[in-house]
Amino acid sequence: MQITLSVIGKLKDPALKSLFDEYKKRLEWKVALHEFEGKGSCQKEGEVLLKSLPPSTFMIILDEKGENLKSEEFAALLKNIQIHHQGKVAFVIGGPKGLSEDVKTKAEKSLSFGRLTWPHLLIRVMLMEQLYRAQQILKSHPYHRK
Predict the structure, then answer these.
(1) Mean pLDDT of successive 10-residue segments in the chain (146 residues)?
(2) What is the CATH number of the domain that holds 52?
(3) Is the pTM value of this prediction over 0.85?
């Protein structure tokens, strides 16, 4: 699995960076992180995010209005991407301004981490944990307890 994270905002907090790095280290899948400063309009941020994505990649945005999946459903989605999209997936996370309409319309899937509002820098750590959890679910590892 080749995972790209294209995000607005740089992860500078040492505690969050440490958590992100810990889950990245645990993952067997390759993860490329592209961080961009949140300067300019939402449209300009969207252009930068879209340009950073590798070609032929299944794009998933994280958006408050997206679908709220259970961890098992998220794992099944990733398995489907492995089978039908050569295992290439990109997760796009906007900054405090959100994502441009252009990014939203180009996404194949929109996911939410619930109806609560989360800081966009924390979301990438939560995503890494869910990626690790999905990997373990697909391996039938007991990390994910029902």
Answers:
(1) 95 94 97 92 93 95 95 97 93 92 97 88 94 96 73
(2) 3.40.1280.10
(3) yes
